[in-house]
Amino acid sequence: MIHTIPPPPFGRALCAMVTPFTASGEQLDLDRAQELAAHLVAEGCDGLVLNGTTGESPTTSDAEKAALVRAVRDAVGTRTALVAGVGTADTRHTVELARQAEAAGADGLLVVPPYYSRPPQAAIEVHFRRVADATGLPLALYDIPGRTGVRIEPETVLRLADHPRIVAVKDCAYDLLGSAKVMARTSLAYYSGCEELNLPLYAIGGAGFISTVANVAPGPTVAVLDAFDAGDTALAARLHQRMLPLTERMMASGLPGAVTAKALLSAGPVREPLQPADRRAVDGLRAAYEELLRQPAQEPVTRLLPRMETCSSTSSIGSSI
User: Which one from 142, 191, 202, 289 is the annotated catalytic residue?
Assistant: First the structure.
């Protein structure tokens, strides 16, 4: 049976938002988080993912995670979906974080399989069902074997699709065939978590994206989907291709997305074990960003970074705050 494409549960253009810190890195910068969230929404993002890997969730406390959700909710109101990353290697802790996120005002949950322990598929399925049963929030599975060490196999996803609160997948498995087979047999919303696959996955029935690059280029990232939805697939392809140099610098340079995004945003330092981008990396990122700004007049783009948050091409992350 071929399923029709349902309305996306969390919007279609989601930014995996960085978590701003104060200059010392010791505390959250909630004012800056609110400013960034409001900017991203104004530039077309209809959903934000907080406390994900790009948000440096491994090095933020449970209390900080809740505070971030509350602050961003206050900034964007109810017009924007907030999805909270709650994945850990411990099912009990993940359940606690899920309940905390619900109490803080999240609209949904993003959950990875338990990492490092590499549980078998039956255990992964139980883990997700435990979390989905713990709250009233809809849940997105996060399939990213490159980080967790284990895949959520398509057959496992098909079984999990029968849970009423498991509604979506953030897809970083690089398996368009497997994703298409699940989409054809379920109503799960598939969000691209790999920037280079944002348009390809959308074209075969995906719901949209959860993007790290959208932190610094929200307008152009959303414009790809806008062009496709308008039926101009040639324009969508051109806009997608124009994003590739920045995408490559941010996501395929050997540096984590949290590092590269913060190198272009004055959002405070990264927390160890991450280290700031060096000057050479920042210069390359800035060059790719500025190239994206140089658009033909007939296809303009809005300003990408909030004016207050741009950093100079000679600044490293450590000196741009």
Answer: 142
